[in-house]
Design a protein that fits this description.
The protein is mostly beta strands. The protein has two helices and 17 strands. Strands 1, 2, 3, 4, 5, 11, 12 and 17 form an eight-stranded antiparallel beta sheet that branches. It has a three-stranded mixed beta sheet with strand order 7-14-15, with no helix packed on it. A two-stranded antiparallel sheet has the order 6-10.
Length: 256
């Protein structure tokens, strides 16, 4: 017999948030906006095609923070026409120094929820069924205070154990949070009049302008030796990837 799938519209999800927005319309050469969302998204699964196990207590095993949950999302945008220096007498100096505009988007976003999985150095059947895998055993809260986190240790790795044969473990859906976003995109523009309606614009655009290292993932897979239960993945809890470094581009735009 082949697999027989049953699809049912069930389970539930919820989302609650506080959303704040502030704007300043363009006046005196300055415009800016700020938006902040403080929220929590909970669900059984994130898409319509993910499975919900019927072999364990459904809510305990499947319900938790959604994969797209972000506790805080703070964004700022701005446009600022830099003040002109009127004391310059040299026409060329006035042309070079004056007429600049700075704009940008700044983002601070909480990391995505994540859990800790596991593998074994040799094959072992823990649950006794091919359709229901086991989860790792969590003995204590693995979350570390921010002051104790470093590149190779983002959460406690000593609180995890391999589940015993015949059990399914006790880990929740998501109990950690991955690295967040701290990003500044900044652009510097200058308009240069050419002739009548012709105008040349110099554009200097910087993404991740301050070249701030923004890690995007970490090792969340423990590796156990079945015979002893020893955890042998030395990189567990270590950052494994980063978002792009600073990228800059220059352009000249002719408008007419």
């Amino acid at each position: 017999y082949d697999t027989i799938n049953m699809i049912e519209g069930a389970s539930s999800s919820n989302y609650h948030s506080l959303q704040v927005q502030a704007k300043r319309r363009f006046a005196a050469g300055l415009q800016f906006g700020l938006s902040w969302t403080w929220s929590k998204a909970m669900d059984f699964n994130d898409t319509d095609t993910e499975a919900v196990s019927p072999l364990v207590p459904v809510r305990v095993w499947n319900y938790g923070r959604a994969g797209f949950d972000r506790t805080h999302v703070l964004r700022m945008n701005y446009i600022w026409d830099l003040p002109k220096v009127r004391s310059l007498r040299n026409p060329l100096a006035r042309q070079v120094v004056n007429g600049w505009q700075v704009s940008g988007i700044t983002s601070f976003i909480s990391g995505a929820p994540t859990g800790v999985g596991f593998t074994t150095t040799t094959a072992v059947d823990i649950t006794g069924t091919p359709s229901q895998g086991a989860r790792i055993v969590v003995l204590e809260n693995p979350v570390l205070p921010k002051s104790q986190r470093r590149f190779g240790r983002n959460f406690r790795t000593d609180v995890f154990r391999m589940p015993a044969q015949g059990s399914i473990g006790n880990a929740a859906k998501n109990f950690l949070r991955g690295p967040g976003v701290n990003n500044w995109d900044i652009a510097l523009f200058k308009d240069l009049p050419v002739y009548e309606q012709f105008k040349l614009q110099f554009r200097w655009e910087m993404y991740n302008a301050f070249n701030h290292t923004q890690f995007s993932s970490m090792d969340t897979t423990a590796r156990f030796v079945p015979a002893t239960g020893e955890q042998v993945n030395a990189r567990l809890g270590e950052f494994t990837a980063a978002r792009p470094p600073r990228i800059m581009q220059f352009a000249l735009r002719l408008s007419f």
